[in-house]
Design goal:
Strand order of the largest sheet of chain A: 1-2-3-4-5-6-9
Radius of gyration of chain A: 19 Å
Number of strands of chain A: 10
CATH superfamily of chain A: Coproporphyrinogen III oxidase, aerobic
Largest sheet of chain A: 7 strands, antiparallel
Distance between the termini of chain A: 42 Å
Number of helices of chain A: 10
CATH class of chain A: Alpha Beta
Order of helices and strands of chain A: HEEEHEEEHHEEEHHHHHEH
Largest interface: A-B, 30 and 30 residues
Strand content of chain A: 25-35%
Oligomer: homodimer
CATH topology of chain A: oxygen-dependent coproporphyrinogen oxidase
Structural class of chain A: alpha+beta
Chain lengths: 313, 313
């Protein structure tokens, strides 16, 4: 599925080549940090066109479960999806990298990121439309404000060169998106950035958007890894694991009830195991559970609403 | 919310009185079997009209988590829901009992049941429409065909007096409904019965439908309890618990992705904790997990497709 044209000329080939390398870099780096877990690889084909490579780690020393998946699919765009996107072209190409990492230590946050590129064609296979989308966001179980600030600041620095105010715009879109509406609008975590339908206005702009996307992709490891290293030896016990499992329940609720990417994938015959790699390894649901007032667990809840983590402009 | 008119004359009052008693009977009986766990009670009010009584057991000896909830709500029917149901009356009343029981021992199946009644009114508060709906279904982790047959046979015997072929019809509707479409159409369990929009044609028929509904409600304990008693002392270890947790993941997936009742409740500002009492206490997701061929775990999967459990006609 992922054979890139040797003479890379198009944005499509450039981006596909980029995410293929990024998948390798991220997996290699996470394996180094973990020291025990390795990513197994599953390649899959899509009957209707294209396929993907899923790389999954389970039972690492640091990372209890994680998936770093790339896919590149093409074919006919189902009519309901044409309506959703608001286009009437029927041939499409889509590729991207999606990752979710669930560390074992409850003091290390879960992280999610996705970077994607989409093209639409007319019946003569001429490209009629294209756009980038993506984002990264962090879901802590215990709050360290300096970690949240580091994550946001790293993303901000990767975005700022591409336009004033862009970080703030995409940060707010992230705050709006990752919300459990059925849980009194509780945020899934402390946010990050989220953007979609970034369409180039001309060739120069297309090159700039590709660079923007690569800049955010390259910021993933610098945004997340220092937090992992800082918290990975933090002692924890049974109580912290239980709290982590309860909070992971909220992660499941968001992904299965609200997440458009997950539901779209499941309802369009995507590869279920690759889509649901995002679900945590251990989860717990208790009826109407509330942490003790004043506890570190209760403190987290105060942070699960939009707030500024860096000086914004 | 649940003050029943002392002069019970309407179907609405009859049914509300019935489910109120049934909740008490079921909770009392399950507590007796458990010997340790007790149901705590939470009453709640709905801003827009009505409310409910949730009864929840956690960490029993036999029942790890269970909810037996009743509710009676009324008010304005949101327009999207009018469209879904296919009616254009705007005032409604709905009441019902919903239960989900997750036993600790993996050799005892999880069970779900729901019995509900719905009314619609015109602007002068005249009843314009009404119907019954409901069902019961069983979700085993290990298959004992005789348990599945007992469950189905008990339901069949409760239904048969109300019409030839009814059991088969409602059993097939159940098979069609409780399916994880995104898991290659794997059934949630071994089924049971499922029915909806049972509208009386006249007063006599209304009485008959009420009796039908009570007959199925009364069949719940005789259908489920003998299975609990038969399997509750079956020895189990860590491996059986892990398999139970993995299968419970499928239960979560069905309830959050596909179940109309759950999604309707969550999206119409229902009481989240009462709705999500259905989620299991411990859950596990492993990437692309398959039990060893020939194992008792693999044997279950052969049964997760529609099959006849009793002689049907």
């Amino acid at each position: 599925m992922l054979a890139v044209d040797k003479n890379i000329t198009t944005t499509r080939d450039h981006f596909l080549s980029y995410i293929t390398e990024l998948q390798e870099t991220i997996c290699k780096t996470l394996e180094d940090v973990d020291g025990k877990g390795v990513f197994r690889q599953d390649s899959w084909e899509r009957t209707e066109g294209g396929g993907g490579i899923s790389r999954i780690m389970e039972n690492g020393r640091v990372f209890e479960k994680g998936g770093v998946n790339i896919s590149a699919v093409h074919g006919e765009l189902p009519i309901p999806l044409q309506d959703t996107i608001g286009v009437n072209e029927s041939r499409f190409f889509a590729c991207g990298l999606s990752l979710v990492i669930h560390p074992l230590n409850p003091y290390i946050p879960t992280v999610h990121a996705n970077w994607r590129y989409f093209e639409l064609y007319d019946n003569q296979e001429n490209r009629k439309d294209c756009w980038f989308g993506g984002g990264s966001d962090l879901t802590p179980y215990y709050i360290f404000p300096e970690d949240a600030t580091h994550f946001h600041l790293t993303l901000k620095e990767a975005i700022e060169p591409f336009g004033n105010g862009l970080y703030l715009k995409y940060k707010r879109q992230c705050d709006e998106y990752f919300v459990n509406l059925h849980r009194e609008k509780e945020a899934r975590g402390i946010g990050g950035v989220f953007y979609d339908y970034l369409r180039p206005v001309d060739e120069n702009d297309e090159q700039k958007l590709l660079s923007f996307q690569q800049s955010i992709g390259n910021a993933f490891l610098p945004a997340y890894l220092p937090i992992v290293r800082k918290r990975m030896e933090h002692p924890f016990g049974e109580n912290e694991l239980i709290w982590q499992e309860i909070r992971r329940g909220r992660y499941v609720e968001f992904n299965l009830i609200h997440d458009r990417g997950t539901l779209f994938g499941l309802k369009t015959n995507g590869r279920t195991e690759s889509i649901l790699m995002s679900l945590p390894p251990r989860v717990r649901w208790r009826y109407d559970y509330h942490p003790a007032p004043g506890s570190p667990e209760a403190a987290l809840l105060e942070y699960l609403k939009p707030r500024d983590w860096v000086n914004v402009r």
